[in-house]
Write a structure and sequence with these properties.
Porin; mainly beta; about 375 residues; two-stranded antiparallel sheet
Length: about 375
């Protein structure tokens, strides 16, 4: 009888151990896809010669495009460690024979609660630049947020990050990161990018963030130097951003995001040297008429060089969309993108770029 009871106890302990391991060691597959049927209704004849164009392409060009496909696998190694591996495919990353390419978007290990309230992340992982604003925007399938759209900061970096709560309630959160500064590409030099981010959320619906980063770059020769070899000066990139957003789930949302991006000694004219500074401002809003139907609008202003002597490079960007949700994981969106351009220095005005689209988004878990 004792042997039977002992065997039964061992069996229960082993099954409980197996069950607990199955709960902890849980893998999840997820992903999403979005693409459009688009038609370039209007384009200026000289648009190919313009810089900082977000809505490009030739007039009357139309077709079906897949702008993003995600496939991710998340795995909980234990209660302390978790991992993510994510692949991305899109029409802007092609293989050598011109087919849609696939690359590694995320590949990181997270050490949860390395100290109370904070996680350590190592690998290819999201940067702190616009994750919060993108969440409040909530329409990534329509377009990237402004800093991502204009290439100010990459959405990913090969980095070490520390993020967590400053207070026990999570009203204040922080995110620090040191990365290669190369996005998803391998390290090519010794210079790094340093990121810092503070998030303030006094209530569930409202959030504010402050962001800054320093991208170290090699020094450049000072054109005013008379020594041999010439003296050098800094040429680093500095970025600052502020975001304010409010989101009432399944009802409405709105937000404002602004940034300033400066390259030290980025403008050289003869022996005169000064910083080159650009700025951007984005404002968006959405309203849900019902659970299935929402209207979305957004306006961006971008000037890559605020210097008074530099003209013809500022851009105004608009999107208007009607989002129809026939299923919890499917969205169909008729929308239109409009980009207008500052007149070029010779005084010629540039026709606006106008692209109507029907966008399809779906996700799976």
């Amino acid at each position: 009888m004792k042997k039977i009871l002992l065997c039964a106890a061992l069996f229960l302990l082993s099954t409980n151990y197996i069950f607990s391991q199955e709960v902890v060691n849980k893998g999840r597959i997820s992903g999403y896809m979005f693409g459009d049927y688009y038609y370039n209704l209007s384009r200026d004849a000289d648009i190919k010669g313009l810089s900082n164009v977000a809505n490009g392409g030739e007039k009357d060009m139309n077709g079906i495009q897949l702008r993003r496909i995600y496939f991710a696998y998340d795995y909980d190694i234990s209660e302390t460690f978790s991992t993510r591996f994510r692949l991305e495919a899109d029409q802007s990353a092609l293989t050598s024979n011109g087919k849609v390419g696939v690359f590694v978007k995320d590949a990181y290990l997270k050490w949860k609660n390395i100290f109370k309230g904070s996680d350590l992340i190592f690998g290819i992982s999201p940067t702190p630049a616009f994750g919060v604003s993108e969440g409040v925007w909530g329409n990534r399938f329509l377009e990237k947020t402004i800093m991502d759209l204009r290439g100010i900061v990459s959405s990913r970096d090969l980095a070490i990050a520390l993020k967590g709560k400053i207070d026990s309630d999570g009203i204040l959160k922080y995110w620090l990161m040191i990365g290669d500064g190369t996005g998803n590409k391998p390290e090519m030099d010794k210079y790094k990018r340093f990121y810092a981010h503070i998030q303030y959320s006094p209530i569930k619906q409202f959030t504010a963030t402050l962001y800054a980063d320093l991208k170290a770059r090699p020094n450049i020769n000072d054109p005013a130097s008379t020594t041999n070899p010439p003296a050098t000066i800094s040429n680093n990139d500095l970025t600052y951003a502020l975001f304010l957003g409010y989101k009432e789930k399944d009802a409405y949302s709105f937000g404002v995001e602004g940034f300033l991006n400066t390259r030290q000694n980025g403008m050289i004219r003869g022996t005169e040297v000064k910083d080159k500074s650009g700025m951007g401002l984005s404002a968006f809003a959405s309203y849900n008429f019902s659970k299935e139907l929402a209207a979305v609008g957004r306006f961006d202003y971008y000037d890559p060089n605020k210097d008074s002597d530099v003209k013809g490079d500022s851009r105004n960007w608009f999107i208007i969309s009607l989002n129809y949700k026939p299923d919890e994981k499917v969205i169909i969106s008729p929308n239109v993108i409009i980009e207008t351009y500052e007149s070029i220095p010779n005084g010629r005005s540039i026709d606006a770029s106008i692209t109507p689209r029907i966008t399809l988004f779906y996700s799976f878990l």
